Amino acid sequence: MGSKFQKKSNNSPFKGKEKITVVRAVRAINTHITIMPCGTFTSEDIITTTVGMALNRNSPTSICRVPDLKFPSCTTYHACTNSLEYVELEENNSKLFQEFAHQFLDKGKYYTFAIDEVNDPYYGKKVPENEDFIVGGKQKKSTNHFYSYISLYVTIRNRRVTLAVFPVRKSQSKCSSIKRFIEIIREEGYHIRVLLLDRGFYSAEIFHYLQSEGIPHIMPVKVYGKKLKELLNQNELRQFEYTIYEDSKKPQTIKIIRYLYRKITKDGTIEEKNRGFVYFGLEWSLLKIKSEYRTRFAIESSYRMRNIVRPRTSTRDPVIRYFFTIVSFLLKNIWVVILHENFRRKQRGPIVIISDWFRFEAFIGRMWNAIAKLASNTLHLSNFDEIT
Q1: pLDDT tens, 273-324?
Q2: CB-based contacts of 297: which residues, under 8 Å, 6+ apart?
């Protein structure tokens, strides 16, 4: 972090609000997710420990060994978290995220939403408990096995807020997750200006659902098949219709707008490729479609931040891993809320957030110091002087 940004973060308006922010996060999780207490440790103590694990990139085994801090032992922690219910996590995670997203969104307004997928490497064995949750993929970090999660984001003036997260399961199609995301958006009273999807969701089933529901969407073309390649190579053809599974009983027609992609290779030559976007429900130019879809790429930075605050674990239990994933996405949301509340440029007109004034790393450090101070005596939240 640059020195000028570090100095700004250390003297920021957030100073002195760390404890209240920890309490707000812990109690929001406790409201929507049930964890049974164990011995002298309450459910809020276990949640506070989980948040501390995320902020300091600890595992349940390592956090209890932090000197002079009274976190529960690994055995006690697992005994408490074994009470987590998968169905509750799946049903209530969107309600939890809404605790920190409602101030950005207004019911009845139109927003740009994005759906993407993130993979967490898994190095253990497949057992009946987790077999449905482990998916294959391209090798990453020396493994081809992953716990994968689909997330729903909303973008507001370059601020990305998570609204829901679901695990990828072999027994469920990705279309079923998209349907649930659309239900969440509609239940909250929001409208979809456009839905941005990665080419990993390129399928006739998903296109059929989105078109039947009248949902405007953009997705990169997944180039395969001789006919599609020939159409993309026709320079005079700017837009065209293409039918997926043309010879099957359920063909699906999509609209494609093509463009020429150029990049400079390492040897200095220019490489050209014909690419395209699938689009629906939009009367936009190619420039507008490309510009709108480019906003989705910022999700990658959100995933990197989320990985920074993901608790370490080697457990095979998909429920505990799902809980850790929810907590990591939530912390990213809380940082966005803090930026909105404390780091807005003082000016008339639209809200402008200066994220350089309070970097994510500074947020992590300040929050961890608050939890460490709490754990130096006892873990009960009632020790905070601000809480009456």
Answers
A1: 888 999 999 999 999 999 899 888 766 667 788 888 999 998 999 999 999 9
A2: none
- Residues 339, 159: contact at Cβ < 8 Å? yes
- 306 within a domain of the structure (yes/no): no
Q: Let me know whether 237 and 340 are in one domain.
A: no
Classify residue 322: in a domain, yes or no.
yes
Q: Do β-strands 191-197 and 110-121 pair in parallel, antiparallel, or remain unpaired? A: parallel
Cβ contact 374:22 at 8 Å: yes
Q: What share of the chain is helix, strand, coil (3-state, %, to 5)?
A: 45, 20, 35
pLDDT in tens, 323-375: 999 999 999 999 988 887 777 666 565 565 666 678 888 889 999 999 998 88
pLDDT in tens, 61-116: 999 888 888 899 999 999 999 999 999 999 999 999 998 888 778 889 999 999 99
Q: Which residues contact 183 (CB under 8 A, 6 or more apart)?
A: none
Looking at the fold, whether 71 and 214 belong to one and the same domain comes out as no
> What's the residue count for the chain?
388
Please indicate, yes or no, whether the overall pTM of this predicted structure exceeds 0.70: yes
Locate tokens 């949750």: which residue? 133
> Between the CA of residue 189 and those of 166, 183, 184, 193, what are the distances in Å?
21, 10, 9, 13
What single string gives the DSSP state of each residue in 341-377?
HH-B---SSS--B-GGGS-HHHHHHHHHHHHHHHHTT
Give how far Cα 88 sits from Cα of 35, 83, 91, 236, 289, Å.
Answer: 11, 11, 5, 53, 38
